[in-house]
Design a protein that fits this description.
By secondary structure, the protein is of the alpha+beta class. The chain contains eleven helices and 15 strands. The strands form four sheets. Strands 13-14-10-9-7-15 form a six-stranded mixed beta sheet, with helices on one face. A five-stranded antiparallel beta sheet has the order 2-1-5-4-3, with helices on both faces. Strands 6-8 form a two-stranded antiparallel sheet. Strand 1 and strand 2 form a beta hairpin. Helix 10 packs antiparallel against helix 11. The two termini are about 60 Å apart.
């Protein structure tokens, strides 16, 4: 059975049970009320007979009663039987006395009833009982005149016994009730049928999103995850639809990331593997010089593959919950630490444009990784001795912080700015292709997005470029404001409680060439040259990220 059928069957069963219970209860109560009404009317008739006997005078003729029979005759004449009620007078050894009025029930026509009540003629008390015959079932009252104390005290009554018999046709009286509840049963069945039709349509409408969800799930394959379920309303099924669509988005993102990773690996690792294999096949093992040269070439290609795999692994973790681990960060101290780590990247004039003292909640290690990647790129695309400056500042309202690297290098053409953050984007400059895998700026972009931020670039060919990481400033809990466990760059080994998210920026994009550069202070603060021998412009320190190209292919 389908869910729709089970729901409808349950609904109809509960509705039928409720209607049956209500109808049965009402029928029983009505049945009892009818019986109680019959008994009350019969007892009232007995009371009237007692009153009539106590008066001792026939109200019709005005003469005193001389016998019990006269009392019974007067009672029959005065009594107005109700519907389904009959009246009868009993006398010893004679035919019953009958009413001359137009009544519905003639008790004298049922010999079994007459035979059943005759023995009660000499009873010393009024009898109320149910009598069943072949004709029907009666609720009868037998009131012998001699059983009435008022009649016994009356003078002049003969000793001939007589009794008044009043009886209701109980079956006929209850037939009205039964007819009413037969109508109720018909109406209940009709209501049940209407409930079934409405319930079928309603459950079909309510379960429509689930059927759409099932069809969508059946149509989804590993190559097409674009199908989505329309959302409408704000009920539980709508929440389920939203959750399912969110799951599809996450799955689509995961599949896309997996495909990109496979494509990237296949694209970038095939060339170094082919180079290594070709040189090993052509190597002359008997020639020491050829062997040494081939060994150096193979090791160099393996180092490049190792760096490439590291970068791909980093990009593969983008979007995972632990990609960014926010902790309290002192941005001014982080600026100083990044500068100290960037100086060995190359023989450049290292400057600090500005330094903010703001604090925020961010991943200091990821920000350092992205900042140093930008510094390494600046070294790679600038000449020895030129200025490479870093800086940090907050905007006017303190809601965003800008972390930038500025160089005086070759710059980026305007038509290539939009592609600098693409994976494996490497450009030719003056016919020379730079070293690197082309993943560095993609990693920087992913780190910025992990902080709900973006990366912008302002560049002019021949005059240099400025790359800025813009992230929101998140409030730091007061309990962590002077935490002695803070490490270098203002980090702490303890995770902080969750903080309200800042309004998200747009997805990381390259800004147009006309984007404003960070405002600089009136005087630049030069940094003393490092005490260690500077590295060449095209190399990186063992602890720095791999310098990457930042221009479009």
């Amino acid at each position: 059975m389908t869910v729709r059928t089970r729901i409808l069957a349950t609904l109809l069963a509960l509705t039928a049970l409720a209607l049956a219970f209500a109808g049965t209860t009402a029928y029983i109560l009505t049945y009892q009320n009818v019986d109680e009404g019959i008994d009350d009317d019969l007892i009232e008739s007995a009371s009237e007979l007692r009153t009539l006997a106590a008066s001792g005078v026939d109200p019709v003729t005005g003469d005193p009663f001389s016998s019990a029979e006269e009392v019974v005759v007067a009672a029959i004449q005065l009594d107005v039987p109700a519907r389904h009620e009959g009246v009868l007078g009993l006398r010893a050894g004679q035919r019953p006395l009958v009413s001359q009025q137009a009544i519905e029930v003639h008790l004298e026509n049922d010999p079994e009833l007459v035979e059943a009540v005759t023995p009660l003629l000499d009873s010393d008390q009024v009898v109320l009982r149910t009598i069943s015959t072949a004709t029907t079932e009666y609720r009868a009252l037998v009131a012998p005149v001699s059983a009435l104390p008022e009649a016994a005290d009356a003078a002049g009554l003969s000793d001939e016994p007589a009794a008044l018999v009043l009886a209701y046709d109980r079956v006929a009286e209850h037939a009205v009730t039964q007819a009413t509840f037969r109508s109720y049963a018909v109406v209940a069945l009709a209501a049940l049928a209407v409930t079934g039709v409405v319930g079928w349509l309603l459950t079909g409408r309510l379960l429509h999103p689930i059927r759409v969800l099932a069809r969508t799930a059946q149509n989804i394959s590993d190559t097409d995850l674009s199908a989505r379920i329309p959302e409408s309303g704000n009920d539980d099924l709508t929440h389920l639809t939203r959750a399912f669509n969110g799951m599809l988005e996450r799955l689509e993102g995961s599949f896309d990331a997996q495909r990109r990773l496979l494509d990237d690996v296949g694209h970038e690792l095939r060339t170094p593997l082919t180079i290594v294999r070709g040189h090993l096949e052509l190597m002359d093992p008997a020639d020491p010089a050829d062997t040494t040269e081939t060994r150096h070439l193979a090791l160099d290609e393996l180092d490049r593959m190792h760096r490439l795999v590291d970068d791909l692994v980093t990009l593969a973790t983008v979007g995972q919950p632990d990609f960014v681990r926010p902790v309290p960060v002192e941005l001014g101290r982080l600026t100083d630490d990044v500068l100290d780590k960037a100086r060995p990247l190359g023989d450049r004039t290292w400057l600090v444009d500005s330094r903010t003292d703001a604090r925020t909640v961010a991943d200091a290690q990821r920000l350092t990784q992205a900042w140093l990647q930008l510094a390494a790129n600046a070294v790679k695309f600038s000449e020895p001795g030129s200025v490479v400056a870093i800086g940090s500042r907050t905007n006017s309202d303190g809601s965003r912080v800008h972390l930038w690297v500025r160089d005086e290098g070759i710059g980026i053409p305007a038509d290539e700015v939009a592609h600098v953050f693409d994976r494996f984007a490497r450009g030719d400059h003056g016919g020379q292709r730079r070293e690197g895998s082309g993943l560095g700026l993609a990693i920087v972009s992913a780190i910025a997005e992990g902080h709900d931020g973006e990366v912008t670039v302002d560049s002019e060919p021949g005059r240099g470029s400025t790359f800025s990481i813009v992230i929101p400033v998140r409030p730091v809990p007061d309990a962590d404001a002077g935490d002695p466990a803070s490490g270098p760059a203002g980090t702490t080994s303890r995770p902080v409680p969750p903080v309200p998210p800042a309004p998200p920026l747009q997805r990381t994009v390259a800004s147009p060439p006309t984007a404003p550069t960070p405002s600089l202070p009136p005087a630049l603060r030069p940094v003393p040259p490092p005490s260690v021998p500077p590295a060449s412009a095209g190399r990186t320190s063992p602890h720095s990220p791999d310098p990457e190209g930042r221009t479009a292919p």
